[in-house]
Amino acid sequence: MQYCTACQKAIATIVIMDLVEGAVTGSQHVCASCAEQLGVATQKHPPKFSAEMLEDLLGGLKSAKPLSRSRAEACPGCGLTPSEFRTKGRLGCPRCYETFRHELMPLLQRIHEAQSHRGRLPGLASAPPPPPVDERTLSDLRRRLEDAVRGEQYEEAARLRDDLRRAERGEGPPT
Q1: Which of 79, 85, 147, 149 is the most buried if burial means most Cβ atoms within 10 Å?
Q2: How far apart are CA 82 and CA 102, in angstroms?
Q3: pLDDT per residue over 93-125, tens digit each?
């Protein structure tokens, strides 16, 4: 913790560095009030997004097709209007997804290059789930594993252990 080099009273929260050709030649640690007096204070509040900045971030949402009369209604869940959605770029409640579906689909297509979520590994989501392994098969594998361990048949026990793990994860029938 370092005190302000200007007033010597408050704790310094801002560092002013002197740079010459990319090298630091000196530094000064100042508090927020002294930084304001020196004219180098940071803004106390983050800047508000202008409509143009928000439009750039959302990829042209404001230039989306105008809403038809039937779609110009507010969300029945939270009361968010289409113009508020375009301004904020955020939805207000889960019902907004259905209410503003007409505007969201082109936006999702533009941002994610798809209109539906496919997960991290798209091919795996559509694969059919493995058939469930019945409890009798699992208990039989456990019993055979215990017998192999008691009989000191370690290679067989290792194979049975692996089969049991695969069966518990639902990765197919044991070998």
Answers
A1: 85
A2: 11
A3: 888 888 888 888 887 777 777 767 666 665 555
Q: Do 71 and 81 form a contact (C-beta atoms < 8 A)?
A: no
Rounded to 10°, the helix 154-169/135-150 angle is: 160
Query: Could you say which of 80, 112, 144 is where a domain stops?
Result: 112
- Rounded CA gap, 83 and 89, in Å? 10
Q: In sequence order, what are the beta bridge partners of 11?
A: 3
> Which tokens belong to 138?
């699992």
Give whole-number Cα distances, 131 to 123, 135, 167, 169, 170, in Å. Answer: 19, 13, 10, 11, 7
Specify the DSSP class assigned to residue 165. H
Which residue do the tokens 């209007």 mark?
81
Shared-domain flag, residues 38 and 59: no
